[in-house]
Every structure is written in structure tokens, then in C-alpha cells.
Write a structure and sequence with these properties.
It is a single chain. By secondary structure, the chain is an alpha/beta fold. The chain has 3 domains: 2-129, no CATH class; 136-200 and 323-479, 3-Layer(aba) Sandwich (Rossmann fold), CATH 3.40.50.300; 228-305, no CATH class. 35% of the residues lie in helices and 22% in strands. The protein has helices spanning 51-63, 77-84, 122-129, 170-183, 228-242, 248-263, 269-278, 283-299, 312-317, 334-353, 373-380, 382-386, 402-407, 419-428, 433-442, 479-482, and strands at 2-7, 10-15, 26-31, 36-47, 87-98, 101-103, 116-120, 136-142, 147-151, 160-163, 187-192, 215-218, 323-328, 360-365, 388-394, 410-413, 447-452, 460-464. The protein has an 11-stranded mixed beta sheet with strand order 9-8-18-17-16-10-15-14-11-13-12. Strands 1, 2, 3, 4, 5, 6 and 7 form a 7-stranded antiparallel beta sheet that branches. A hairpin with a 7-residue loop joins strand 17 and strand 18. Helix 5 crosses helix 10 (334-353), helix 6 crosses helix 8 (283-299) and helix 7 (269-278) packs antiparallel against helix 8 (283-299). The chain is elongated, with a radius of gyration of 29 Å. The structure holds adenosine-5'-diphosphate (ADP) and magnesium ion (MG).
């Protein structure tokens, strides 16, 4: 391999036929004389195009099949084939290393005549970057088959995004991250839209996994209920205002009712209903309050019975060595879903503010379905400050605003086939447009392009490992459930 040319932040490298490459692979260009090397990453390949080669190809086509073409007294043909099949590897310059240290790129160019170009494994790459932490999380293997781990420290205090088309392996990656965090004793809260994260507690054979004791599935209306007093006035006002869209005048009346209940020490659902019914106010206001009251009841999130209620602090306290609380949102209506998420998040922030809880990693799948817009900004700024470190998983890249991509520290990109989606993520992600566009288009399932802090800002393609717990997606299929019960019908 040789350097052919440089254009902007790209190096063109000449490769002969027979040398195999995979997109995303790293190469080093070593210039012995300068004791410096350049690290580049292959993002695409092309033919070597020159008028001479094109003319030759045309000649081959014209004379194909004729005797003239077979005469090759000087045995030039094999050489000609090599030249015609030569490829140009399009590579992005990633960094320059001098005396074993990463230095700013500063326009240094390796010698074109004497530099050597060779492949570079990720372990060598990571040695150069130098790793900040010691808590490893195995994600999978890189394109050359080496194991690829990240440091849990690089997820700490960070905002992560996992995106890609359906069935690409996003939730699988999310589960790998969660299990890795659990291995290091972290606390995780998961909003589980499809009811699939409970699999963390089960081994592949159907027994219990090593995470079983550290995973708790919270089902709203079953084992996730709060008392009215625990949620408190602020959160209730929040939910009424933002989820149930209570108008201003009604809201004021509600606050008066709440204060009255609090003074008389009767903050319960039963007393709330009774007080609304007997409260001196406009009929419209009463109706509005009652209808919201019934919405609250139907979400089954609040209970007066102290045996059935829990608190976020209590749930986390039972997980001394870290653990995951999985809030199941499958089978819950959209309105109730938003009420649950809003209350749980608000309570979480309360706990963190009062330091009754250690920082928590939050994992939210398709969060745009239940997280109101203002909460997004809150999550990545204020809540992050208090200690909620979010990971968003979505198959609709445009559901996450460009401002959120810009603030993301790590992005795990899976395959997209839709051109518009590719453009969108390429524009928003933290590396160059061409790399993302070219690599993401051709990523196979289970493979992702990892960008950001976890890979020292050097994009890496990773094939995720299989898990020893159940990571099955939750799509219920029609035909698989009918295979055994109905015999095939013979057709003529
Ligand atoms: N690295 C992997 N090894 C084994 N199975 C995997 C791997 N990645 C994904 N899968 C499986 O592929 C299917 C789709 O993955 P999933 O993560 O549910 O996709 P997505 O969330 O992107 O729709 C799941 O059944 C999952 O278990
Ligand atoms: Mg999924």
C-alpha cells in the first residue's frame, strides 16, 4: 500500500488487488524518518481512474474474443490486470502520533515515497489513546476480530444516543450497556416501552441470570403505585398542567383544595374526591377537576392503601450494590404513560436534589412517545447536573432534535436504509459526514458505528456480543404462533 494523494482531511491510499479491507478499519502510515505516524480510517473505496486505464479497458472490450487479444509475448497481461484492478482507499485522517503521543494534526504530511502503510488493530489504537478508566464493559468485537470494550467511566455523567432502523440491534446494545453498568454497581432506571428488559433477569435457558437479584420490574398499577402525599403538590400540579392540560382557573382551585386537604391532614384520593364534590366553586371548574381526578384514578398510579404503595428511594435502597428498576410501559395507555414518566422523573429529581439518592443512569426507548418537549432539554441540562445520565434509544432519528445530538457525548449508530435518515444522523453526529454516510449505509445487523468519548473520539465499527441473559426483542409474530397449531394446507 502506498499514499496516493491527500485532499482536505482525506488520504487516498493505493491498494493492489488481493488486499482485503472492511469499511471502518484503521490504518497507520509510518514515516520512520520523522518518527511520526498518521492514523487514518477507511470509509470507502474506489477504482484508480486515469485516462490510460480507461483506454485500456475500452481496448479490452473491443478486442474481447478476438485472437489478437490472446497474444501476449511479453506477458504483460497479469501486470495490466493488476493495474486495472488497483483500488484507491478513501481514508479520513484521525490523528497524528509523534514519539508515542497523540498530537494536534497541524498539517503534517508523511513522506509519499518512503512511508509504509499497514493495518492497525483497535487494541493498538486504544493503547495510543490511553484509557481513562478501569471499569471495562465488553461491547463486542471490531472489524478485525479483536475484542472491543469501553470504560464505564466514559458513560458516567454523559448523554448517549442509540439509533438505527428496526431490528438492527439497538435494544440489544442498550441491554449490553445496562448489564455492564450493573457489573460495576451502577443504578439504572429504564422506561421499557415494549416490556423486553425483564429478560435481563433470565438466562438464555430460561433459568435465572446473574442479574436476577439486581433487576426489578415495576408494573404501573401492580407494584408501582405512589401515595398522593408522597408525590406532593408540586408533582401533582405538574402532571395536571402538563399531561392533563388543566386550564389556569381550574388549577388555582385545585391548589386551594390541596392546601385545604394538607391543613386538615387528609391528603388521600378519597378525601380529594369528596372535597372536589363539596367544594364551593363554579360547576365547570368542578367538572373539569372531577374529570382529571378520574383520569388520575384510571392511570392506577396512586393508591391510598399503604400496603400497595412504594417510593423510588425504597426501591433503590433495596439495591445496595447497584441495580436496575424497569418501569414497564407496555400495555399502558398513552396518557397514563406520560403521567407515570412525568411523576417518576420528577420524583427522581427530588431525591437527587435532596441527596437521598446517588446518581442514576436513565434508559429511555422511543422517549418522544411519552416525554414532553421541555423535559428533553431539562434532562440533558438540569437533570444531568443533578445526576441523571440519559441514554435515548430510537429508530426515528428525527424524533431527537439536532440540539440534543449536538450535546450527545456518545452515539451508537446502527444501519439505516432510508436516505433521509442517513443524511439526518450524518449531519447531526460528531464526526465527518462522509464516514457516517458511507459506513452506516452498509452496516449489517448487530454492527454499529460507535462515536464519541467511549472510543476516544475515534469512530469504531463494533459487532455486538451475544448475551448470556435473554435479550430477545418483543415483537409478537402471527405466523410463529400458528406454526404448530395449524397443519400446512396442500395446494395444487
Ligand atoms: N449481538 C447480537 N447477538 C445475538 N442476537 C442479537 C444481537 N444483536 C441483536 N440481536 C437480536 O436481534 C434481534 C433484534 O435486535 P433488537 O436489539 O431487538 O433490535 P432493535 O431494538 O434495533 O429493533 C433481537 O432478537 C436480538 O436478540
Ligand atoms: Mg428495540
Amino acid at each position: 500500500m502506498r499514499i496516493l494523494s491527500k485532499r482536505g482531511d482525506e488520504m487516498m491510499i493505493l491498494a493492489l488487488p488481493g488486499e482485503e479491507f472492511t469499511k471502518g478499519e484503521y490504518m497507520k502510515i509510518v514515516d520512520e524518518r520523522a518518527d511520526t505516524q498518521m492514523v487514518v480510517q477507511l470509509y470507502d473505496s474506489a477504482y484508480l481512474d486515469s485516462p490510460g486505464i480507461q483506454e485500456d479497458l475500452l481496448r479490452d472490450e473491443l478486442f474481447s474474443g478476438s485472437e489478437l487479444n490472446r497474444l501476449d509475448p511479453l506477458e504483460m497481461e497479469s501486470l495490466g490486470v493488476m493495474i486495472k484492478d488497483a483500488r484507491v482507499l478513501l481514508c479520513k485522517i484521525r490523528c497524528v502520533i509523534r514519539a508515542g503521543k497523540r498530537i494536534p494534526e497541524s498539517g503534517w504530511l508523511p513522506s509519499r515515497s518512503s512511508s509504509t502503510v499497514s493495518k492497525m488493530g483497535v487494541s493498538e489504537l486504544y493503547e495510543i489513546i490511553g484509557s481513562r478508566g478501569t471499569r471495562r464493559i465488553l461491547l463486542g468485537e471490531s472489524v478485525n476480530g479483536e475484542g472491543n470494550s469501553i470504560n464505564a467511566e466514559d458513560l458516567d455523567g454523559r448523554l448517549n444516543i442509540i439509533t438505527g432502523r428496526k431490528e438492527a440491534g439497538k435494544s440489544h446494545m442498550a441491554k449490553l450497556l445496562v448489564s455492564g453498568l450493573l457489573d460495576h454497581g451502577a443504578k439504572v432506571l429504564i422506561f421499557d416501552l415494549n416490556g423486553e428488559y425483564g429478560g435481563l433477569a433470565l438466562s438464555r435457558e430460561g433459568g435465572v441470570s446473574r442479574y436476577a437479584k439486581r433487576v426489578k420490574v415495576l408494573q404501573p398499577g401492580y407494584n408501582l403505585r405512589f401515595s398522593l402525599r408522597y408525590l406532593g403538590k408540586r408533582i401533582l400540579v405538574d402532571v395536571l398542567q402538563n399531561v392533563l392540560e388543566v386550564p389556569g382557573a381550574t388549577m388555582r382551585e385545585f391548589m386551594r383544595i390541596w392546601d385545604y386537604l394538607e391543613q386538615s391532614g387528609r391528603v388521600t384520593l378519597k378525601d380529594l374526591e369528596e372535597t372536589i364534590n363539596h367544594w364551593h366553586c363554579n360547576e365547570f371548574v368542578r367538572d373539569a377537576l372531577l374529570s382529571r381526578y378520574y383520569s388520575l384514578i384510571s392511570s392506577d398510579l396512586i393508591s391510598d392503601n399503604s400496603r400497595y404503595v412504594t417510593t423510588i428511594e425504597e426501591e433503590f435502597a433495596s439495591m445496595k450494590d447497584g441495580g436496575a428498576l424497569i418501569v414497564t410501559l407496555s400495555g399502558v395507555g398513552p396518557l397514563a404513560r406520560r403521567m407515570i414518566v412525568e411523576s417518576v422523573l420528577a420524583k427522581l429529581i427530588d431525591c437527587l436534589e435532596q441527596r437521598t439518592l446517588e446518581p442514576v443512569f436513565l434508559l429511555a426507548e422511543e422517549a418522544h412517545l411519552y416525554l414532553r418537549h421541555t423535559y428533553w432539554e431539562d434532562l440533558i441540562t438540569r437533570m444531568r447536573h443533578f445526576g441523571v445520565f440519559s441514554t435515548f434509544v430510537t429508530n426515528q432519528p428525527d424524533a431527537i432534535g439536532p440540539d440534543i445530538y449536538r450535546q450527545a457525548d456518545n452515539i451508537f449508530l446502527y444501519n439505516f436504509t432510508n436516505e433521509k435518515d442517513i443524511e439526518q444522523v450524518a449531519q447531526a453526529s460528531m464526526t465527518d459526514f462522509e464516514t457516517v454516510k458511507s459506513i452506516v449505509r452498509t452496516l449489517e445487523p448487530k454492527h454499529c458505528l460507535v462515536l464519541g468519548k467511549v472510543v476516544g473520539d475515534l469512530p469504531v465499527v463494533v459487532k455486538s456480543v451475544d448475551t448470556d441473559f435473554q435479550s430477545l426483542g418483543s415483537t409478537r409474530l402471527f405466523f410463529t404462533s400458528h406454526i404448530e397449531s395449524t397443519p400446512p394446507v396442500e395446494t395444487r
